[in-house]
Design goal:
Length: 382
């Protein structure tokens, strides 16, 4: 089957992160077994989702991993001009949810499995298909654990997020949480007798803003990023019920995205400590029932690969590129590096500018360029 034929099938599976991906995994596993590949399914705790390891070639020597995720973001509320879960060729573009992010890459990998099997590889090629990447890079973690349990020690990993086949050697790490400020309600005419959760949340929001301004002004720099410094912001706030009621609850979601010179987790931890130890203590002093609760949302490490490393040199040769870049969006590459001790490069067809939007698309020529890259990798692994 061609990459486009497989992509048509992959897009038809509605694998929005809140839903099961098992039907897609069944389909992919069938393709892998038909190509003579070894498969290893890794179920999540609910049994409704699974990651999949596919191995072609010898197991007792190190090889390379091709990493992709099966889940996509929702299309609800977006103004699509065609069914997002039906691959549609229009004006030379292939439209559908996940075409760029990142079922296009997965489709090319799957389409080339018969060529991998026929190549008599001396170094194996593994395909790692994860779930729940879009909600915090969750599903790749048990896949990496299974990799280690099986004694696999790959030479490197290619994560096929959409980069236009540019060689990406770094991305920012992210840490995010939801804080809920629990106050005491009363009539607004008696405001001093209440504990205003919205006002305490506002002080926390200002704290994050000031820290972000300091990072932008005085923090570490990396000119390879489009935003060359660490960022922090509050993005979702819910609180209050009526103008004449002192609010007793307000939730705030915030994040830090850090370049290698900073630690997103440490920055988020410092902000949380200000909320719980300073603001929460003030709230409890006014009413012991008040305070702040914390719900972690997302935490993944950044990627920072030496541009002179062997994997980067190999990737540039296979891609026919002389340059490298870094991106602000997160990927599973940092987890392969941090948890699996596997160097990783991000390279794949499509564009992140098209991802998560209505009328997401990939171009056939981009899939062909990805196939050329993988064919050169197959030749190099013989």
């Amino acid at each position: 089957m061609t990459p486009v034929e497989i992509l048509e099938q992959l897009v038809a599976f509605d694998t929005v992160s809140a839903k099961s991906n098992l039907a897609l995994v069944d389909y992919v596993e069938g393709l892998a077994r038909a190509a003579g590949a070894e498969t290893d399914r890794v179920l999540d705790g609910t049994g409704t989702k699974a990651g999949l390891w596919i191995t072609i070639g010898p197991r007792d020597v190190p090889g390379y991993v091709l990493s992709g995720h099966s889940d996509v973001v929702p299309a609800d509320g977006q103004a699509w001009t065609s069914d997002p879960f039906t691959l549609t060729l229009r004006d030379g573009r292939l439209y559908g949810r996940g075409t760029s992010d990142m079922k296009g890459f997965v489709a090319v990998c799957l389409a080339l499995m018969p060529e991998m099997a026929a190549a008599n590889l001396t170094r194996p090629l593994h395909i790692a298909l994860s779930y729940d990447e879009e909600v915090g890079c969750l599903g790749v973690r048990p896949l990496i654990a299974r990799m280690r349990d099986r004694g696999l020690r790959p030479l490197g990993c290619f994560v096929g997020e959409p980069t236009g086949m540019a060689v990406v050697i770094g991305h920012k790490g992210k840490s995010a949480a939801r804080l809920t400020f629990h106050g005491r309600a009363c009539h607004s005419a008696l405001a001093p007798r209440g504990v205003n959760a919205v006002e305490y949340a506002a002080r926390f929001i200002d704290h994050v803003r000031l820290s972000a301004e300091a990072l932008a002004r005085d923090g570490a720099r990396d000119g390879l990023y489009d935003v060359p410094h660490t960022t922090g912001l509050c993005s979702v706030v819910h609180g209050g019920t009526a103008l004449n009621i002192v609010p007793d609850a307000c939730s705030v979601e915030f994040e830090y995205r850090a370049i290698a010179g900073d630690d997103a987790g440490a920055l988020a931890g410092a902000a949380i400590a200000y909320a719980t130890d300073t603001l929460g203590a003030e709230m409890r002093a006014r009413d012991p029932a008040c305070g702040v609760t914390v719900e972690p949302l997302i935490d993944y490490p950044g990627l920072d690969l030496d541009p002179d490393s062997g994997l980067v040199t190999l990737t540039k040769r296979l891609a026919g590129r002389n340059h490298h870049a870094k991106v602000s969006f997160g990927t599973e590459a940092g987890l392969f590096q941090a948890l699996g001790d596997v160097p990783a490069v991000v390279i794949g067809p499509g564009s992140i500018e098209r991802a998560h939007k209505a009328d997401e698309y990939v171009e056939p020529a981009e899939l062909e360029a990805c196939a050329g890259f993988l064919r050169r990798l197959i030749a190099d692994s013989r």
